[in-house]
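Support case: AHG complex. Customer-provided input:
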Amino acid sequence: LEQPPLSTEILTLTRHVLSEQIRLGAAATGDLTLLINAIEFTSKFIASNVRKARLINLVGLAGDTNVQGEEQKKLDVLSNDIMVNSLRASRKTAVLISEELEEAIIIEDEYKGKYCVVFDPLDGSSNIDAGVNVGTIFGIYQIRPGSQGTIADVLRPGSEMVAAGYTMYGSSANLVLSTGHGVNGYTLDPSLGEFVLTHPDIKIPPRGKIYSFNEGNSLHFHPPTVNYLNSIKFPPSGKSPYSARYIGSMVADVHRTLLYGGIFGYPVDKKSKSGKLRLLYEAFPMAFLTEQAGGIATTGTKRILDIVPKTIHERSGVYLGSKDDVLDVIKFYEAEA
Ligand code: AHG
Ligand code: MN
Ligand code: MN
Ligand code: MN
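Agent response - structure generated as follows:
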């Protein structure tokens, strides 16, 4: 069999981000590129630990509880430390917000830069010990003009983020990123140790066939959620019902939704009155990517990226995915209003 010639034109993440910044005339300093480079490094580091977790005794609990009242896993704590250290050392950050830290980290002057990073170091921790996909989610704000970096710089609507993304640690590590001009996906080539552009300009299909909810919470769901789910499970005769896929790692469920289309939902319900997912480092980055890929992200009644957070660990209901599917949910909320 004839082999295609070996390509020497590999578009790595750093090269791609840099060329995009230059193309957009935004690369005056290259600071954002360097920051993304630091995040890319944390993804490689965390990916390698996720892969070895069973071998080096990284499975199981760390023994502490985080501010959300969740038991921290060893990999939650390790991934958080990896991110804090690398982001501080990048000298590009001023404020760091992590799911695993009750308070914001304000970077000392010596290391201070102009960006704020909000992150979920390890998303899907309940899946770690079973070897199921987990990930890291991040969002980036630039400090406001004149600010030295305070939490006011991150208590801003998600639409003001300058970039957002996630890395999914699965059969391969996939980094998906938007700097506000579309969405691109990169896959870690382990032999090169580089993320390589594999999914340029990701667009969510306008309608999908998959729904992704934790239906175990059905008892608590509000009527618009129940009515919407019934509409896709019991469609008018002649139409096929939707397929269910729910991994329980937001990163993995959103990744599939971006690529295949359909809808992911973790709504506010009678028990979780504010929802479960955290605005700054779960809902906002994923809503940012969804919109950049041509989809919609809503609470059911409000665009997620328009919410102004009052506290750093605030939660929100979330529906996101294919435009037509999410518009269907919104109709059930309008009918209820
Ligand atoms: P984390 O592991 O970072 O705490 O996030 C867990 C989140 C998210 O990944 C997922 O979508 C959701 O919790 C799953 O919740 P349920 O187990 O309630 O379905
Ligand atoms: Mn958690
Ligand atoms: Mn999470
Ligand atoms: Mn987490």
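The longest strand covers residues 115-123.

Case will auto-close in a few days if no follow-up is received.
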